[in-house]
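Dissemination and training. As part of the outreach component of the grant, students in the summer workshop were shown how a complex can be specified as a set of sequence lines and then modelled as a single object. The example used during the hands-on session is reproduced here so that future cohorts can follow it. Participants entered these lines:
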Amino acid sequence: MPSAASTLIVLAAGGGAGVLGALLGIGGGVVLVPFLNLVLHFPITQAAAISLVTVIATSSTVAASRSGAHLVNLRLVMVLEVATAAGSLLGGLTAQMLTQSALQRIFGAVTFVVAILMLLRLNTRNVLPDDAETGVLGGRYYEEESGRAVAYRIKRLPAALAASFVAGNVSSLLGIGGGVIKVPALNAWCGVPLRAAAATSAFMIGVTATAGAVIYFGHGQLPALPAAAAVIGVQLGSRAAMTIGDRLTVRWLKILMAAVLFIVAVLMFVRGNA
Amino acid sequence: MTSAKDDTLERRLGWILRGGVVASTALLAIGLVLSFLPAGMSFAPMLLQAGLVLLVATPIARVAASAVSYLIAGDWMFVVLTTIVLVELGAAVAAAIHAQ
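and obtained this result:
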């Protein structure tokens, strides 16, 4: 019989990752993977595989609940998915060829960058009047803060495609969602307002994670019981966070999270070089 | 820009995603509980596998549904794009099967 205690610990870890992910708008994978790998001693490929299935669940839930709000730019999703799925496919295959310590060092480097991005959160507004010409891939939505409809146009599509490819690659290599690369790129370089960028990225992440998860699954690197516990934990956690999220100021949490990520980066480097 | 059509598509894709996640989570939850009950241990692994396969298949179904919807609308540019994504996901599935 499998250990009930270890299953409960994975469930709780998923819950914590779900809360943080929902409150901070990043996937919880960036904390779940190091916890599973460094604390619970899952091989990093198994930790990544478990995290990827939680990413699929979260992305699908978020995408379903956001429908109708016009924040998801479906046409942009379909274009960028071509790049992100290719990146993800390549990442999943590459992960099979790298050693655990190489993956840990890459994880450390990426976590370091994520922590810095979190502290420098970009927010370029990018919105145009509602009657502006948006082009084929642009979008319009109702902006709650200003109480009016706004429009935006896509700039530098090749940059968005490149960022999606890299995000897909990093996502399946390390088991994180990749939104942390896509959202700032879409926002700062490609003219997408932050809320639309976040919603569009969250919608795409399910496909990104799927290509990676399938490959790990085929290599027998997705242990079913911990994966089930993590998926359920993450969903409970993100649901709980939605009820407290509005009342909580997340500024201090972002700073705390950045601090945690710096520590994770250092630990991964130390372990990767041991 | 066919905003109304995009809205309908987004709602339909939302149903697929929600249905897939709810059904797979239910399978995983039942499988998880049964793993710890002597009576359920024999078929718990099957439920867990089914839940994981269904979860991973959900985004693939979403892309397939988008492709069909664009095909019906005659929006060829997006038929091509979604088909490429399906081929990429199919390649991942092929790599997974090959690994076994």
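Strands of chain A lie at 128-129, 139-143, 148-152. Students were then asked to discuss how this feature might be tested experimentally.
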